[in-house]
Amino acid sequence: GAVVSQHPSRVICKSGTSVKIECRSLDFQATTMFWYRQFPKKSLMLMATSNEGSKATYEQGVEKDKFLINHASLTLSTLTVTSAHPEDSSFYICSARGTVEQYFGPGTRLTVT
Amino acid sequence: EDKVVQSPLSLVVHEGDTVTLNCSYEVTNFRSLLWYKQEKKAPTFLFMLTSSGIEKKSGRLSSILDKKELSSILNITATQTGDSAIYLCAVSGSGGSNYKLTFGKGTLLTVNP
């Protein structure tokens, strides 16, 4: 089946620094990728829809200047958390839309100290 | 705004029991309903349902969609401890663009030996 990878799987950074998370579709091209955030024991919250070659579409309440999304190619989308703060600590999951369903990456655990 | 409600939020059973998880939804231009299982990392796909009344089965798991009632159930028979997980229901609508998924809060299933 289709595979989506994320890198890194876990990152710890200091408050005020920026962190980039990569999402790759390994065996298919994805014109659309999605970024989700999940707090402990909560459901996935869609943050933004990443479209190859165009600007991302952000959900209400998600700061576009804080969570920068770049979908530079059909197999790669990146999420950069800028000037990270402890409240940004969370599990970030990407998914890529295939022909039938969405395929999820393994997630990235971000801890901001 | 699309909405997905799952019940119960948590459930504790003994091995061998049968469980039924519920999902109801409100979505603009319904396309599909999906069930995912989430253990420690990102969700793994279980079923995608698009047509009412047609049961999908995979081993001890089965699911069916009722478009008239705007709901779906996920059944697990002869539960095992390995079934312990969060089960997420998501709907895809084309009211917006890019077929984004809206997730419910999930049902936390615990299967005790």
Name the average pLDDT of chain B.
Answer: 91
The SSE string of chain A, one letter per element, is EEEEEEEEEEE
Main beta sheet of chain B: 6 strands, mixed
Query: Any low-confidence stretches of chain A, pLDDT <50, length ≥5?
Result: none
Number of helices of chain A: 0
The topology string of helices and strands of chain B comes to EEEEEEEEEEE
How many angstroms separate the termini of chain B?
41 Å
Molecular shape of chain B: globular
Strand fraction of chain B equals over 45%
- Compute the CA-based radius of gyration of chain B: 14 Å
- Major β-sheet profile of chain A: 7 strands, mixed
Strand content of chain A: over 45%
- Rg of chain A over CA atoms, rounded to whole Å, is 13 Å
SS class of chain A: mainly beta
- Most extensive chain interface and residues per partner: A-B, 22 and 21 residues
**Class based on secondary structure composition and strand pairing of chain B:** mainly beta
Shape category of chain A: globular
| Mean pLDDT rating of chain A | 90
Protein model, in words:
The complex is a heterodimer of chains A (113) and B (113). The mean pLDDT of chain A is 90. Chain A is built from no helices and eleven strands. By secondary structure, chain A is an all-beta fold. In chain A, 38% of the residues are buried. With 113 residues, chain B is mostly beta strands. Chain B contains no helices and eleven strands. In chain B, strands 2, 4, 5, 9, 10 and 11 form a six-stranded mixed β-sheet that branches. The chains are: A mainly beta (113), B mainly beta (113). The interface between A and B is medium-sized, with 22 and 21 residues.
